[in-house]
Specification:
8 helices, mainly alpha, single chain, 0% strand
Length: 209
């Protein structure tokens, strides 16, 4: 089934989010290069499996957009935590060159994934519009959290309880990865029920090997 592949990258999303939360609690920056940046190509690779199933392809595009958004958020935080040297002319040339290269690399990464985030989100809204969620996936729509004030508070929790929290609809560029995973679980349960598919959905917070 086309939906089976989503278990893998949803598990990665949950595990990476739990890892980011753990790093944040220790005042350490989140990882990008070995986590989120490698996950986006994996998510995109499943297009061959979902292309004939519009709503599953829409879910994949939503997740792709949110992965790209996570990358942008982490890279932006790098920039905000990096302060220019008070006297750059006093810096060794090697250090100054290294700093400039790092800034250029981060800008390139941010620009690239901002464009990807926007493109995937647009694809998602075309393949799985909010109107379809409301009319065709009523359980999933009804299960959303309607108090938007909780959006900023709901994920400030321990990794062990991450999957038990709420999700918010419609999905947007501010949707966190774990909120997207919660939505994906609810959506796929209803999708499988509607299609008469017997399949057990599993998401682990352990980083897949």
């Amino acid at each position: 089934m086309a939906g089976r592949g989503t278990n893998q990258y949803r598990s990665y999303m949950a595990a990476y989010y739990a890892q980011d939360l753990s790093l944040h609690l220790r005042n350490r920056p989140g990882e990008v290069e070995q986590t989120w940046k490698t996950l986006l190509p994996l998510c995109l690779s499943y297009a061959r499996c979902t292309k004939d199933f519009a709503h599953l392809d829409g879910l994949r595009s939503y997740l792709s957009s949110i992965i790209a958004s996570a990358i942008c958020t982490h890279v932006a935080q790098r920039a905000s935590s990096t302060r220019p040297h008070d006297s750059p002319h006093d810096m060794p040339h090697a250090d100054l060159a290294k700093q400039h290269t790092s800034i250029a690399d981060n800008f390139s990464l941010l620009a690239d994934h901002t464009l990807k985030m926007s493109r995937h989100f647009q694809d998602a809204r075309i393949a799985l519009p909010a109107s379809d969620l409301q009319t065709l996936y009523k359980k999933t729509w009804a299960g959303r959290e309607t108090n938007m004030k909780l959006a900023r508070e709901s994920d400030k929790t321990s990794a062990a309880t991450l999957l038990a929290g709420p999700y918010f609809l419609p999905l947007g560029m501010d949707t966190t990865p774990v909120q997207a995973v919660r939505f994906g679980l609810a959506f796929l349960r209803e999708y499988c029920d509607k299609e008469g598919i017997s399949y057990r959905l599993r998401v682990s917070l352990e980083r897949p090997e």
